[in-house]
Amino acid sequence: MPRPEVLDRVKDAEQEADEIVAEAEEDAEETIAAARDEADEIREQAREDADAEAEERLEAAREEIEAERERILEGGAEEREDLEARAQERTDEVVDYVVTQFEEAVHAQT
């Protein structure tokens, strides 16, 4: 094979090798960019999932607190009703006592 022809083939092979390397580098950059995008998406999804989980836990805690509040209020209402009933039962007794004390005080002054 003549020397100029060999030289042309070598140049062609070098050019082809350069093109292959450039294409490989471009593919590598695209792959890295895609991997970064995918990692960003995974992080964002994880963040959204964590936020949703936190919101669910917060809502569950609020519901639990509200249930406890209602239980306490019901207990307080029952206790208040019991105290009112006991006070009502003693009204006549207290009125009699006050009248007696008043009469004794009036008699003591005369």
Describe the 3D structure:
The protein is mainly alpha-helical and 110 residues long. It has one domain (3-109). Helices cover 96% and strands 0% of the residues. The protein has two helices and no strands. The protein has helices spanning 3-89, 91-109. The radius of gyration is 46 Å and the shape is rod-shaped.
Fraction of residues in helices? over 70%
Count helical runs: 2
Mean pLDDT: 93
Which structural class is indicated by helix and strand composition? mainly alpha
Task: Note the topology.
Blueprint: H1 3-89, H2 91-109
Notable traits:
about 110 residues, mainly alpha
Summarize the structure in short.
The chain is mainly alpha-helical. InterPro entries: ATP_synth_B-like_membr_sf (IPR028987), ATPase_A1A0-cplx_hsu (IPR014275). This is ATP synthase archaeal subunit H.
